[in-house]
Amino acid sequence: MTDTTHPATATFTTRDPATGRTLAAHPVHGPEDVARAVDRARAAGARWAALPAARRRAHLLAWKRTLAEELDEVAGSVAAETGKPLGDARLELLLTLEHVAWAARNAGRVLRRRRVRTGPAAANQAASVVHRPLGVVGVIGPWNYPVYTPMGSIGYALAAGNAVVFKPSEYTPATGVLLARLFDRAVPGFAGLFGVVTGAAETGAALAASGVDKLAFTGSPGTARKVMEECARSLTPFLAECGGKDAVLVTADADLGAAADAIVWGALGNAGQTCAGVERVYAVRAVHAELVDRVVERARGLRPGSGPDAAYGPMTMPGQDEVVRRHVDAAVAAGAGAPLGAVETPDGPFVAPVVLVDVPEDSPAMTEETFGPTVAINAVADVDEAVRRANASRYALGAAVFCGSRRAGAAIAARLRAGAVSVNSVLGFAAVPALPFGGSGDSGFGRIHGAEGLRAFTAPQSVTVRRFAPPVDLTSFTTAPAAKARAVALMRWLHTRR
Ligand code: NAD
Fold this sequence. Notes:
Layout: E1 11-15, E2 22-27, H1 31-50, H2 53-69, H3 71-82, H4 86-111, E3 114-116, E4 125-133, E5 136-140, H5 148-159, E6 163-167, H6 173-186, E7 194-196, H7 201-208, E8 214-218, H8 221-233, E9 238-241, E10 246-250, H9 256-268, E11 278-284, H10 285-300, H11 320-333, E12 337-340, E13 354-357, H12 364-367, E14 374-380, H13 383-391, E15 395-396, E16 398-402, H14 406-413, E17 420-423, E18 440-441, E19 444-445, H15 450-455, E20 458-466, H16 481-496
Parallel strand pairs: 5-6, 5-8, 6-7, 8-9, 10-11, 10-16, 11-14, 13-14, 16-17
Antiparallel strand pairs: 1-2, 3-4, 4-20, 9-19, 12-13, 15-18
C-alpha cells in the first residue's frame, strides 16, 4: 500500500529460497490497512471507469512499456524471491507483457455496448447489452509465477475499468509492490487505483472480507475453500484458479523425441512448481519404454541450482521438498519403478529430477499435486484408456496430447476434461492471450485471460429502449382482455408451429 500515514506495526521477512539469505521486511497489513487501500482504490476507480476505453488502453500500454523497460529489475525481484533462474523470470515477464498488451487493446472491443435482436414479443424495443466494471477487484496471488499469474487478473480487471487491490504471496511481496510502483510511475494521477497490501493468510482474509466487488484468487484448492467461505458471508463474487495434476497423452504414432523434450520441460521447468505443469504421462504400451528412455536421457543431464548453468531453481516454499519426497517414496513403496532420481535424497531446497514409471493410480504421485521436479509415466493399452485415466483426476486444469496426426490429436483433446489442452506441445495456451484459462473440480472455476477473462471482471447491463407503442400492450392494465387473448393465441401459434 502506498499510503504511509498509517504504518502497520508488525512486519514479516522474506528470504532467498536458494540461500536462506534475508531479503527484506514488509508490513503485515491488517483489516484497517486493507479497508484504506480499498477506499483509495474505489475513489481512483470511479475516475478510471469514467475514462473512454481508448484512454485506459493508452495508460495500460504505457504501463506495459514501463514493465518492458524495467524488465531486468522486475525479473531480478522474481528471481530473488522465488529462487528461479533469471532467464525463467525474464520469460515469465515476456509472457505477461503479451497479456497486458492484449487486455489493453481488446477491452474496448469486447466490452462495448452491442445490440441484440429483440424477437417478436418485443419487436417495438431496441435492445443492447454492455459490460460495466464491477468497481474494486481484490486479487490474492501465489508465489510460483508472482507476475504472470496474478496479472491474469490484475491486467484484465484494470483493462475492464476496475480498480485493484492486490495481496501478493507472503513469499513474493516485493514483486507485487514493484508492479504497483511501476504502475504509478507509468499512469500518473491515479494513485491507489492499483494498490498492494502485504501479509499472509490474515491479510488475504481481510481482503476477502473488505467489501471488494469481486475476489480473484490463485492458489491451492484448500485455501480457495477458506477464501470462498469468507466471500460467502458478504456474497462477494469469487473466482478460483487452483492447482492441477496435468496429464500428457502419447499415442503410438507420436514424435517421441518432441514428446520427451516437452515432457521434461513441462515437468521440471520452474522445479515443477507450475499449476499447469506436467505431472502424469499416459503413453500407449507400444512406445512406453522408448519414451521413458528418452525422458530419462534428457532429464539426467539437468541440474537444479542457483548458478547460471542451473536448469531450474530450488523449492520456493520451505518444506515442499518433504511433499515431493513423500509422493516419490509412497510410489516406490507401492511398486513403482524409478529409472531416475528417486533414491537420491533431496539436497535442501534443491531437488534433482525424478522419473517414475508404473505408478499405481491411487498413489499420491498420481492423485495429489506434487509441485516438484518429478514426472510419472504410465503405460496404457490404448488412447481410450489414456483418456479415461487422464480424466479420472479430481483436478482438471491443463493437458497435452502428442499424436502423429494433428487432426486426431485435436479429436483426443476434445475428449479431455481440462480447461486448456495443447496438441504436440505443452503449455502452448499460456502464450496466447486470447485464450481463456481456468479449470474445474479442484482446479477451481471461472476464467482469466481472453475475452472471458475481461468479462469476468464486469457485470453485463441489459437495456431496452421502447421505439414505438406495440399493437397490443401486454404490460398495461388498460389493454382490452380480448386483444390480449388474440395476442396470446398468436404467440401460442408461433411456438407450436413446426
Ligand atoms: P496458497 O493457497 O498457499 O496461497 C495462495 C495465496 O492465498 C497466498 O497469497 C496466501 O497468502 C493466501 N492465503 C492463504 N490463506 C488465506 C486465507 N485464509 N484467506 C485469504 N488468503 C489466504 O498457494 P501458494 O502456495 O501460494 O500457490 C501454489 C498453488 O497455486 C498451487 O496449488 C498452484 O497449482 C496454484 N496455482 C494455480 C494457478 C492457476 O492459474 N490455476 C497459477 C499458479 C499457481
